[in-house]
Every structure is written in structure tokens, then in C-alpha cells.
Automatic annotation (TrEMBL):
<dbReference type="GO" id="GO:0030976">
    <property type="term" value="F:thiamine pyrophosphate binding"/>
</dbReference>
<dbReference type="Pfam" id="PF02780">
    <property type="entry name" value="Transketolase_C"/>
</dbReference>
<comment type="similarity">
    <text>Belongs to the transketolase family. DXPS subfamily.</text>
</comment>
<feature type="binding site">
    <location>
        <position position="366"/>
    </location>
    <ligand>
        <name>thiamine diphosphate</name>
    </ligand>
</feature>
<dbReference type="GO" id="GO:0009228">
    <property type="term" value="P:thiamine biosynthetic process"/>
</dbReference>
<dbReference type="GO" id="GO:0019288">
    <property type="term" value="P:isopentenyl diphosphate biosynthetic process, methylerythritol 4-phosphate pathway"/>
</dbReference>
<dbReference type="GO" id="GO:0000287">
    <property type="term" value="F:magnesium ion binding"/>
</dbReference>
<dbReference type="InterPro" id="IPR033248">
    <property type="entry name" value="Transketolase_C"/>
</dbReference>
<keyword id="KW-0479">Metal-binding</keyword>
<comment type="pathway">
    <text>Metabolic intermediate biosynthesis; 1-deoxy-D-xylulose 5-phosphate biosynthesis; 1-deoxy-D-xylulose 5-phosphate from D-glyceraldehyde 3-phosphate and pyruvate: step 1/1.</text>
</comment>
<dbReference type="Pfam" id="PF02779">
    <property type="entry name" value="Transket_pyr"/>
</dbReference>
<dbReference type="InterPro" id="IPR005477">
    <property type="entry name" value="Dxylulose-5-P_synthase"/>
</dbReference>
<feature type="domain" description="Transketolase-like pyrimidine-binding">
    <location>
        <begin position="315"/>
        <end position="479"/>
    </location>
</feature>
<keyword id="KW-0460">Magnesium</keyword>
<dbReference type="GO" id="GO:0005829">
    <property type="term" value="C:cytosol"/>
</dbReference>
<feature type="binding site">
    <location>
        <position position="145"/>
    </location>
    <ligand>
        <name>Mg(2+)</name>
    </ligand>
</feature>
<dbReference type="InterPro" id="IPR005475">
    <property type="entry name" value="Transketolase-like_Pyr-bd"/>
</dbReference>
């Protein structure tokens, strides 16, 4: 009889005998491996926290007590124990369970996440809310060693340590971010784990801490004293102690005999406590233990071998971008690349291999990455910040204040621009055009395909100022490649096809969709032009105005939020040129957070496929044109005017 199947909520878990918990963990691992092998997901991190999650739910009274999962890509066991086992097969699919914590999904999810380093701050918000509301619940934050390198985590610890309220932070240390964790904090944690002297003393104090049945204030002091003695000369945990946290551990995060009594005791302690727990990424599935990087967030795979279930049809845009960068770096010694803990995802591994001294992995520290790049640029280097669109959001002020105001030649390679699929809301690259284009000095571009991508990479490197290039997640189009990349003129678009009724002005991967739609429309008698804008900023006003003068309708297409993005830039250009006799429509992402789902499905849903663009144009053209006289006639009813995104003039 399955134990897992008897658990509808954490209350049921409490009926399981402690001796049965390892068996339950095996069932949980089985379920996670089975599901992730068929739908993909964050396997390695999840397999590492099975015992820790079971122990926390075993001891806490959730949902009154709160667990905040930093990043929350490790919350699968939490989902399985909190009433979501039966839907677990829908994980990360359209309409299914999220791969992350979502308050909309369950009362057991205390805070939404997806980006790393928010856990401590959010959980401390729950702590202070409890104090303000005079409640009694416990608050626990589980944060990884990778997320410990994020500035926000340190800001949160600093605040919480200073105020001294009851708060448990569990540091889940598997010595890995996505790749091997980096930097001084990671080295510090490793020393804490591996110190030989401390290891022995830790064992003794750990035993003491586990033995104390119901730890009272005096006993707590005794345990602390013993712990202090154990610290001896090397003072493990000193960093956290100095930040106002009582530090305990490290303990084995896979052993219930350590986990349960230790957690029970630290949960009773007063003030901020940090418990250091050591876990292994991928535990329970050999291929994931051997390759935790690939299994951090993997596509569907063959259970028996761990091999990917499908082979990619063509190289990704990421690969083309980074191959271009490597080629350019061979010729230009000034180029250095910067990643914020995303060397593999951003495709920088080839660069690292060839130029190990010119690649900086700064940890999960996007803000630092950008300002660090600005510093490098002041000295004549050519820093290339390679980052997912969604993570660059965190460094908005650094882009504006540290790079753009000084007009520094920092290149931003923005990967995962647009819809990213299964990671959903927190990971879609929806906002970059909008959050970059309003910064004076910024150049913002996006290629229509991988060939243009290589030319744009060259353009970026040549440009003497802040410049960004964004490309999507996924496989490239398979177009033929020019032998040599050539820089493009900044701010110049490309007229792909002329027409006299409608102009579709598109950017990035939407351009080829627009071309297909235009060809079909033209065949049906609606003469349709297509502009590949190439640049969101500076936008090619001359081309846009020239084409707009020839047509009656202008449709903009972008895989980004409509508000403030590319379409807005086109409308501004038309407005500046006083083009008032075209009817316009913007296609792009609406003013809500986009759900998870396959890219194709989401593109279809938001009208960004060739079919969607075609339908939008047909609908627009089918409507009675709105004339200037109609709109401005005194007393004229506005009911006939286009609604929503359409802006008739
Ligand atoms: C702000 C931000 N940058 C980058 C990422 C990508 N990312 C997701 S998980 C992860 C590693 C997290 O490591 P750790 O906190 O140790 O958790 P583990 O997966 O090891 O449990 C990274 C870099 C992110 N989610 N958020
Ligand atoms: C980086 C990150 O947040 C991952 O956890 C995410 O799931 C990666 O997805 P891709 O790198 O496949 O886009
Ligand atoms: Mg880790």
C-alpha cells in the first residue's frame, strides 16, 4: 500500500510513523522522477530536498505555519504533500500545476517565486506581519546555497538579523547553483562543511542539540555555549552570527535521525536562527547525481538512461549568438563576458572553454553583474553581459544609472526574449523592449533569424555605447548563413516586402510570421508590406513613415508586452511625423502575466503566429475605415471607433 497515496494534506503526514518516512521518501522520488521524465522540469534540486520537505511538513502546522521556498523550483515534494498529488502529472503544462509556488494554486504556497534570492525578504515580511497582527505562527524560509549569493538574500538577512524576531532560515546547501556554486560565500560554506576540526566538534554539539528533548531557554543557552566552544578557532557560521542569526549545523539533510530532532529544537528557539543543511542534488536517480547541471531543469528524458527524449531539430538561437561571440572575441581582446550563474543556459560554456580568464560568473547577482560591466567598460574593455530577459529585470536601475547615463559601451545579450514556455509567468521575457527603450543612449535591437543575429552581434561589439540584442528561447529557423558577419547601420530597418493597403511592422522572430501572413493577404488582394524594424531604438522613423504614407492600415507585431514596447515606438514615430490618416493595431502580449504552456500554443493564443497576424489584418481591414471627419465631427458618437488596441485616427 502506498503511503504517499494516503496523504491528502500535511495532517495525514503526521499519522505516518517516523520509521516509515524513508519509504515515503522513496515513493516521492519515484513519483517525481516518473513525472519529470515525461513532462520535464527541475529534477535535481527536487530530488535533493525530499527528506527536508517531509521533515518540515511533519513538524510544522502548515498552512498556519508558513514555509517560503526561495526560487521555489524545488517545491515538488511540497506540492505532493499539500493536496496536489493527483494533478502532479499536469506539472508545467498549459492549464496545469505550476513548476513553482503559486498562492493562487494552494493555500500552502506562502509566496510566489521563480527568481532566486527573494525568499528571505518575503519570509521576513511574513514574520513581521505575524508580529504586527499578534499571531503565533512559525515562519521558515528554505534558501539554497546558490541563492545565498544573491544580494537580496543578504539584504534580507541583514534586516531580519537586526530586528531579532523568531525566524528560521534553512540553508539548503548542495554546493551547487545550476552549475558549481561560485564566489567567496560558496567557498566560505564549503570550508564550514569540510573543516576537520569543526566536523568532529559539530558531531558532538549536533548530538547534544538532537538529544535535548524540549529545549528551554537554559538548555538553549547550554547548547549555544557548547556550539560556541565547538567553533574554536575556525568559527563556522560566524558570517551568519555576525548578521544576528544563531547558526546551527551543518547537518545531514537526508537523515531523519538528524533532521527531525534538530529541526524540532531550532523551531522552538527564540530570535533568528539559521540551520545549515547539507543535501545532494539528484539523490535517488543516478543520471541526475552524475549530471546535476543538465538535470537542473531538463526536458523530458528516457527514464532508464537519462538521455533526452527528443533531439533538437536545429541549433538554438543561444548557440548561434554565443558562437558568434566566441568568433568576435578571437579578434577582439577587449571582449569579456559576464554571466550571473547561468553559464550553461546562456550558452557561455564554449566561451569559458576558450577564454577562461575572460569569463566572469558572478553568482546570482544580476545587479552586480551590470554595474561590474560598467566599471570594466570605463577602462576600455568591451563587457558583454549575457542574461535571460527575465533576470535582467532585476538590474534595471543598474542599466539606467550605471551604464546608460554614462553612455558606456556595455553589450547586453538578452536571451529568452519573448515566450519561454513551461517556466511560465516568472520567466517569460515579456518586458525587455519596454524597460530598455526609454533609457537615453540605449540601442535596442532584435534579429529576425540566426543570420541576422550574427550581423547584430558584430554591430553590438562595434557600437560605442550601451546596446542590447534580444533573441528567443528555442531552435533557430534554419536559414542560410552569410560567411562573414557584417555590422548593420544602427537604427535602420529593412523593407522586406512592399504593399499599398496594409503595412505590418514587426521585430524579432515575429518578422517571418508577418511575412507569411503578408504573402497570403496579398494573394487575397490585400496588398501588404512588411517592415523588419531590426531596431526598437533608435527606430527607423524614415522607413516607418515612408511606408505608412502608402497604406491605410499599420499593424505592429512583437513578442513582448504591448505597453511601452516596439508597437508603442512605432506609434510614437507616426505621431511625431503627424501621420494621422492610418488605422493602427498593435499585436503583442497583453497587460497581464502570461501563463505557462508550449511556445507555439501561447503564440497562437496571443495572435502572434502567421495565422493570428493574418486574422487580425483581415478583421481590421474588414471594418469600415474610420475617417478624420468621423472622429472629430462635433457631437459624433464614438461608438463606431475601434476599441482596445486599435487606434484609429
Ligand atoms: C534572479 C535569478 N537569476 C537566475 C536564476 C536562474 N536560477 C534558477 S535556480 C538557480 C540556482 C539556484 O541554486 P540554489 O539556490 O543553490 O538552489 P538549488 O537548485 O541548488 O536547490 C539559478 C541560477 C533565477 N531563478 N533567478
Ligand atoms: C534558469 C532557470 O530559472 C531555470 O530554472 C529554468 O527552468 C531554465 O529554463 P531554460 O534554461 O530551459 O530556459
Ligand atoms: Mg544549491
Amino acid at each position: 500500500m502506498s503511503i504517499l497515496k494516503t496523504i491528502q494534506s500535511p495532517a495525514d503526514l503526521k499519522r505516518v510513523l517516523p520509521s516509515q518516512l524513508p519509504e515515503l521518501c522513496e515513493e516521492i522520488r519515484e513519483q517525481i522522477i516518473g513525472t519529470v521524465s515525461s513532462v520535464g522540469g527541475h529534477l535535481a534540486s527536487n530530488l535533493g530536498v525530499v527528506e527536508l520537505t517531509v521533515a518540515l511538513h511533519y513538524l510544522l502546522k502548515t498552512p498556519a505555519d508558513k514555509i517560503v521556498w526561495d526560487t521555489s523550483n524545488q517545491a515538488y515534494t511540497h506540492k505532493l504533500l499539500t493536496g496536489r498529488r493527483e494533478q502532479f502529472h499536469t506539472l508545467r503544462q498549459y492549464g496545469g500545476l505550476s513548476g513553482f509556488c503559486k498562492r493562487e494554486e494552494s493555500e500552502y504556497d506562502s509566496f510566489n517565486a521563480g527568481h532566486a534570492g527573494t525568499g528571505v525578504s518575503a519570509a521576513f515580511g511574513l514574520v513581521e506581519a505575524r508580529e504586527q497582527l499578534k499571531q503565533k505562527n512559525k515562519v521558515v524560509c528554505v534558501v539554497g546555497d546558490g541563492a545565498m549569493t544573491a544580494g537580496m538574500t543578504l539584504e534580507g538577512l541583514h534586516h531580519a538579523g537586526g530586528l531579532g524576531k523568531d525566524f528560521l532560515v534553512v540553508l539548503n546547501d548542495n554546493q551547487m547553483s545550476i552549475s558549481k556554486n561560485v564566489g567567496a560565500i560558496s567557498a566560505y560554506l564549503s570550508r564550514t562543511i569540510s573543516g576537520e576540526f569543526y566536523g568532529k566538534m559539530r558531531e558532538e554539539t549536533g548530538q547534544l542539540l538532537r538529544k535535548i528533548p524540549h529545549i528551554g531557554e537554559d538548555m538553549q543557552k547550554l547548547a549555544r555555549r557548547a556550539e560556541e566552544l565547538a567553533k574554536g578557532a575556525i568559527l563556522p557560521g560566524l558570517l551568519f552570527e555576525e548578521l544576528g542569526f544563531q547558526y546551527y549545523g551543518p547537518i545531514d539533510g537526508h537523515n531523519f535521525e538528524h533532521l527531525l530532532p534538530t529541526l524540532e529544537n531550532v523551531l522552538k528557539m527564540k530570535g533568528p536562527v539559521l540551520l545549515h543543511v547539507i543535501t545532494k542534488k539528484g539523490l535517488g536517480y543516478e543520471p541526475a547525481i552524475n549530471n546535476p547541471v543538465w538535470f537542473h531543469a531538463c526536458p523530458p528524458f528516457v527514464r532508464e538512461t537519462g538521455a533526452p527524449a527528443k533531439k533538437a531539430a536545429r541549433p538554438s538561437y543561444t548557440q548561434f549568438a554565443m558562437d558568434s561571440l566566441v568568433k568576435l572575441a578571437r579578434e577582439d581582446q577587449r571582449i569579456v563576458a559576464i554571466t550571473a550563474a547561468m553559464c550553461e543556459g546562456t550558452g557561455l560554456t564554449g566561451f569559458e572553454k576558450e577564454f577562461p580568464d575572460r569569463l566572469y560568473d558572478v553568482g546570482i547577482a544580476e545587479q552586480h553583474a551590470v554595474t561590474f560591466a560598467a566599471g570594466l567598460a570605463t577602462q576600455g574593455l568591451k563587457p558583454v553581459v549575457v542574461m535571460y530577459s527575465t533576470f535582467l529585470q532585476r538590474a534595471y536601475d543598474q542599466v539606467v544609472h550605471d551604464v546608460a547615463t554614462q553612455n558606456l559601451p556595455v553589450v547586453f545579450c538578452i536571451d529568452r526574449g519573448g515566450l519561454v514556455a513551461e517556466d511560465g509567468t516568472t520567466h517569460h521575457g515579456a518586458f525587455d523592449y519596454a524597460y530598455l527603450r526609454h533609457a537615453p543612449n540605449m540601442v535596442v535591437m532584435a534579429p529576425k533569424d540566426e543570420n541576422e543575429l550574427q550581423h547584430m552581434m558584430k554591430t553590438c561589439i562595434q557600437h560605442d555605447g550601451p546596446v542590447s540584442i534580444r533573441y528567443p528561447r528555442g531552435v533557430s529557423l534554419g536559414v542560410s548563413m552569410d560567411a562573414v558577419p557584417a555590422a548593420l547601420p544602427i537604427g535602420k530597418g529593412e523593407l522586406m516586402k512592399d504593399g499599398s493597403d496594409v503595412a505590418i511592422m514587426a521585430i524579432g522572430v515575429s518578422v517571418w510570421q508577418a511575412m507569411q501572413a503578408a504573402e497570403r493577404l496579398t494573394k487575397e488582394g490585400i496588398s501588404t508590406a512588411v517592415v523588419n524594424a531590426r531596431f526598437v531604438k533608435p527606430i527607423d522613423q524614415d522607413l516607418i513613415v515612408d511606408v505608412a504614407k502608402r497604406v491605410r492600415y499599420v499593424v505592429t507585431v512583437e513578442e513582448g508586452c504591448k505597453m511601452g514596447g516596439f508597437g508603442s515606438a512605432v506609434l510614437e514615430a507616426l505621431s511625431d511625423a503627424r501621420i494621422t490618416d492610418v488605422t493602427t493595431k498593435m499585436l503583442g502580449l497583453p497587460d497581464w502575466y502570461i501563463e505557462q504552456g508550449p511556445q507555439d500554443l501561447l503564440r497562437e493564443r496571443y495572435g502572434l503566429t502567421a495565422e493570428g497576424i493574418y486574422q487580425s489584418v483581415k478583421e481590421l481591414v474588414g471594418k469600415a475605415p474610420v475617417t478624420k471627419q468621423d472622429r472629430f465631427a462635433v457631437g459624433a458618437s464614438l461608438d463606431h471607433l475601434p476599441h482596445g488596441d486599435e487606434q484609429g485616427s
